[in-house]
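Allow me, if you will, to draw on your knowledge of protein folds for a short while. I have a record of one protein: its chain in single-letter code and its fold written as C-alpha cells. I should value your view on which stretches of the chain appear to form regular backbone elements. Thank you for your consideration; the sequence and its C-alpha cells are set out here:
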Amino acid sequence: MQIPHDVRLVPTDLLLINLAYLIDTSCDQNDEQGLKQALNWITELETRELKSAERALLHYFHSNVWADLKQIMQVEGSQTWNWQQEYISKQIFYLRSARYSPGFMNLDQGHRLSISTNLGNTFSTVGRFIEALYYYDEVISHHPTFGMAIGNKGIALLYYSRLVYDPGHRGLIIRNAYSNLIKAITSELHPQALSEFERAIKQIQDSFPTKQFLEDYKPEEYSLGHTKAEQDYRSWCLTKHLFLNPLNDLGAYSIAARDVLSAPSIVYAHKHETLYFHAFFDQLKQEYVAARYFYYEGIKLKTASFVDKELHLYNTLDYPSYGISLERVKSSYRTSYALFDKVAYLLNAYLELGIPEKQISFRSLWFINQKHKQGLRSEFTNRNNWPMRGLFWLSKDLVENQQDIKDAIDPDAFDLANIRNHLEHKMLRLHNEHIGINLPKPGQAKSYSLFVQDFENKALKLLKLARAALVYLSLSLNVEERERQSSREPNKIIVKQRIPKLDE
C-alpha cells in the first residue's frame, strides 16, 4: 500500500506494518534518508494512544533504526574502542524501553527473543558483559535451543575469562564458554555467526587440552554454611547472582557462594599510602555485602519486631506501610547508591586524574572538567580496557541533573535518582497495594509515593548494579596492571609483598 504523505491519516496497525518494512529495506539498501523517514513515522506514532504491545513494538523498531544508522554511518571497525557512541546509547535506551514495557510479554516470541538477544549483544559490545549474560540467560530459559543467544553467551564468557586474575576461575569460565559454543553450532545459525563460533571453539582447543572440558567437575557440592539461616541466605544470593564472585555469573552453583573477588595485584608507588587501593576496595566490598544483607532481611524477615512495638503512627488513609523491615530495604538502597561515587573516588586516585575531591562523581568522572558537553577526557578516549568501558556505560544508568537525563540509557534512571533524593532529603511514602488506590505520579505531590513491591524491585535492581560496578572495577584494575607491567622498564626493581587474609 502507498503511504499518504500525511501519515496522520494512516491507521496505527497499518503504519506499524509499513514502518517495519521501511526500516528493513532502508537498512538493506544503506538508505539513510529512509531511516530518517522512519524516525518521523515513529514520532507520529508516539503521539497516539497505543496498546501496550504496540508501544513495546514501537520501542523495538526505534532501537532498530538507531542500530541501522550506526551501521550505515560508521565504518566497521573504526569505532571499536570509541567509548562515546550516540547510536548505541539510543539503541540500548529503546531496547530497554521495549523490555520494561508492560506489553513486552504480549509480543510474539520472535520479537521477545530479538529484543533480549540484541540487549545482550549491545551490552557485551560496550563492556557490560555481566548484564549481557543476564539477557542471554533470559532468552535461553524461554528458548533453550536458540543458537544466537547460546553462542553469543559463549563469546562473552570467553572474553570475560581473559579478564579475571584467578587461574582457577578463568578455567571454569572458559569451560562454560566452550560448552555453550559447542551447543550453539548444533543449532540453525547464520553462516557468519557459525564461522565466528567455530573460530572461538578452535581458539579454546588450541590453547587448552580438549579433555579438560570433558572431565566432570562438581560445582554444586560446596557448603552453604552450617545453619539453615545461613544456607537460606546464601542460596538466595546465588539465585539472584549477588555474590562478588565471577563464578556466580555462570549460575547458582554453591562453588560461587562466597565473596572472593578483591582488588588484583597492584604495584604501588612510594607516594601512595600503604595498600591504599586494596583497603579502599575492601571497604566498598564490605559496604556492598552489608547492603545485600539489609535487603535480604528487609524482604525475608518481615515478622513483627519489638523495635516497632509501642510506636505511635497514624493511618493516613492511603494504605501506608512502615516497619523496621522496610527501613532495612531503605538502608540497602542508600548504601548501594552511595557506592558508585566511591568507585569514582578510587578511580580518580588510581588513574591520577586530579579531580578535586568535592567534584568527584561517578556520572561526571569521565568528562573534561566533569562536563558532558566538553567530551571525554583524553585518559578514556579509545582506551583499550573493556571492563572500564563497562563502568563508563554503567554510569549512564544514573543521573544527577537534566543533562544526564538526555544521555541516560535506562528509562528508570530518573526514578532511581528521584527515589534516592527523597530518601535522603525529602519524603518517600510507601504503600501496601490495594485495589482502587491510585498513587500520585512523580511531580504531582511534594512526597514520592511507591507501592512496597515496586520499591523493593528497584532496590534489588540497584543492588545488582552496584555488584556489577564492583566486578568491573576489580577487572578493570587488573587490565590496567597488565598494561603497566608490559610497559614497565625491565630493570625497575619491584618488591613483592603478600597480603595476609584478615581473620573472620
Remarks:
- The beta strands are 428-431, 448-451.
- Residues 123 and 349 are 27 Å apart (CA to CA).
